[in-house]
Design a protein that fits this description.
single chain, mainly alpha, two-stranded antiparallel ribbon, metal ion binding, potassium, ion transport
């Protein structure tokens, strides 16, 4: 393991995080709302600590980096997210009303991984500078702070490929059609444009600049943090509340589909767009689920179909995109509706998007592979050609998908056991246990039971919060970039 490469690259990454803290600190300095003086001091102090740590690491790793080998790239990705999440919790600890270390670690990682789970019991009591930092962490984590790192630091050269491949969920065959650095820059350009369009739309609908910025940051990143205790339900009583919900749901759908698709549209490669089945299935599943749940609510409660569809559509999109914005309390819904939401939580969005979960493309491959195996049972010599999004899939890709799905299921079951063990003294119920694990591993935000849409994670023990924070990173990096850190051979010297 080349420690100099690790030190220099992680040091530069920490400096990048410090710059984001300084931007939020400057907002707190110029903000006219009382109480932001504490936020300014906390953000500047945290930025100073990050700058000192980053400089020390960069001095230790002084020298030119020609390339980052694959092994070092994997370690940088895994440690980079953990370090950024840990340091990002400092403003929550320093600023009043303050948080203990475990809560700050949880809240920060929930931001960077765009999970959206929170331990803040009264969000509106926090200074606006801290709430902006809270939203900023999700916006940076949405596209991936390391993808931004690849885009802006040209000295990474060939080594940027190993970071990009292990940090993001983009399909290698599509991301490699151009230089990785150029691809990363294109993705962030699209990300910025979508954020700006969303921001302007929210401002025109009557939101303040602060609220428009915070919500545009967290909807485009499919993160779900809101500066209001009631989340998006805060706007439900507005005359144009339905329009705000529709606008936000539109961007949740847009950002749950691979960002490479928007690059395809800009380059007029219509054949690739016609081959896109993952995005089409995502929209179909969301529409079908929302209508099915709304119909059930109409039959059970006799409510108006359009009113029911308004709540179910937003909730389904928010859950499937793993954004986690709150609008209605879905826990009183019928059992079949909750089962649909649980399946949508595990499925998540599309590969190459800011959404979390298992990813719809893997589900498509898994289902096609299952069909292939069933047919092969009575037609062993039949030849199959399997495609997803126009890309041919070989035996290795199919087996990797099946293995990943099985590993994901195992991690979910094992994590439920760990949380149940850690919370045994509080008598946690199985629904809450399952909801907490799925909400954090799939980077969704709200779960079921005592961590449902009207609750939060504040009542859980410190050890449980740390464990769930690690689950967020594990899910955000799709298991391997974190699990590989526990393989002893990875750390051996050359």
């Amino acid at each position: 393991m080349n420690l100099k490469i690790l030190a220099k690259t992680l040091g530069a990454l920490i400096l990048l995080e410090a710059m984001a803290m300084i931007i939020c600190g400057l907002f707190a300095y110029f903000d006219t709302v009382a109480g932001d003086e504490g936020a300014m001091a906390a953000l500047f102090m945290s930025a100073g600590i990050c700058i000192m740590g980053g400089i020390v690491l960069m001095l230790f790793g002084v020298g030119k980096i020609k390339r980052i080998p694959r092994r070092e790239g994997i370690v940088i990705v895994g440690l980079g997210w953990l370090i950024c999440g840990t340091l990002g919790g400092m403003p929550y600890m320093i600023c009043e009303p303050g948080m203990p270390a475990s809560d700050a670690f949880f809240e920060s990682l929930s931001g960077f991984t765009t999970t959206g789970s929170s331990v803040m019991t009264d969000i509106e009591s926090w200074p606006r500078g801290i709430l902006l930092w809270r939203s900023m962490t999700q916006w940076l984590g949405g596209m991936g702070i390391l993808v931004l790192f690849v885009a802006v630091l040209s000295y990474l050269g060939m080594g940027s490929k190993s970071l990009f491949r292990n940090e993001s969920s983009f399909q290698t065959s599509e991301a490699s059609t151009a230089r990785i650095r150029d691809t990363a820059m294109t993705l962030w350009t699209v990300y910025l444009v979508i954020t700006a369009v969303c921001l302007v739309g929210l401002k025109l609908m009557g939101l303040s600049w602060f609220n428009a910025v915070c919500h545009s940051f967290t909807v485009v990143s499919t993160g779900g943090f809101s500066p209001h205790n009631a989340s998006i339900a805060y706007y439900s009583d507005w005359g144009n509340g339905w329009l705000i919900e529709l606008w936000l749901s539109l961007f949740m759908v847009i950002c749950s589909i691979s960002f490479l698709i928007w690059g395809v549209i800009l380059s007029h490669r219509w054949k690739r767009l016609r081959d896109e089945e993952e995005g089409k299935w995502f929209v179909i599943i969301c529409l079908f689920s929302a209508v099915l749940i709304a119909a059930g609510l109409v039959i059970r409660d006799g409510s108006n179909f359009l009113d029911a569809l308004r709540g179910t559509w937003f909730t389904v999109v928010s859950i499937t995109s793993t954004t986690g914005f709150g609008l209605v309390d879905y826990e009183p819904w019928p059992a079949y509706a909750l089962m649909i939401l649980a399946m949508l939580m595990l499925m998540g969005g599309c590969s190459g998007s800011t959404a979390g979960g298992l990813k719809l493309s893997r589900l498509l491959v898994f289902l096609k592979t299952a069909r292939f195996e069933v047919v092969r049972a009575f037609r062993p010599y039949q030849v199959f050609r399997m495609h997803v999004n126009g890309n041919a899939l070989g035996e290795q890709q199919r087996s990797q998908t099946v293995m990943f799905t099985a590993l994901y299921a195992f991690v979910t079951i094992f994590s439920c056991f760990v949380v149940a063990l850690l919370e045994a003294y509080q008598g946690i119920d199985m629904l809450t246990c399952f909801g907490a694990v799925v909400a954090t591993l799939a980077n969704i935000g709200p779960g079921f039971g005592d961590v449902g849409p009207t609750e939060n994670f504040a009542h859980l023990g410190p050890a449980t919060k740390v464990f769930l924070g690690l689950l967020m990173v594990l899910g955000r990096l799709e298991l391997f970039a974190i699990l590989v850190l526990f393989i002893p051979s990875l750390w051996r010297k050359y």
